[in-house]
Amino acid sequence: MTIVLRLAALLVVVTAMSVPAFAQWLTYPTAGVPRLPNGSPNLQAPTPRTADGKPDFSGIWEPEKNRPCPPDGCADMQVPQEFLNIGYSLKDGPPYQAWALEARKSRQEQNGKDDPVSRCLPGGIVKLHTTPQLRKFIQIPGVIVTLNEMDATYRQIFTDGVHCRQSVRRPSRATPSANGMGTRSSSSQRDFRMASGSTETAVL
Length: 204
Description:
By secondary structure, the protein is of the alpha+beta class. It is built from 4 helices and 6 strands. The protein has one domain (47-203). It has helices spanning 2-23, 81-84, 98-109, 124-130, and strands at residues 59-61, 135-140, 143-148, 153-158, 186-191, 199-203. It has a 6-stranded antiparallel beta sheet with strand order 1-2-3-4-5-6, with no helix packed on it.
């Protein structure tokens, strides 16, 4: 009888915990998003702006669903065209340098066997933004933070014009460039699952 009562108490606790956990994600609307009468986002509305007039990226994002699944369904996730070819929408494709074009060709021929994702490692910025999983953008003055469902990673993009310290910048990275927001930016990404606790730093 004691075991039955303990199991019943455990069931009550688990049930009570699951209700708020479910309610804190999908049914919580992002404040300030223009909406249609049916409550869905109005994608034709003017771009939301911050107080200083910059585009406001705050909200939950996913890639455009521009590649339908075959009749018998997708083998895994419904990936966008850009997942397979980042230059899909470009008339002449990406402007690859010769070495990059050769690397792309070699990796295609090897079926992407060295893709970090195949080893449960972070997949890089392009993979991060073309994988059909949700990410939440949090934008405040000086920084944009993305919380990514993929690999439970986060990324912070500094928009205050301050460069990464030289001691943490990877020498193989390019120098910062304009990011479309009137400033130069740097970003860092960390995979919580890596035991080493190392930080991946990139400069945009």
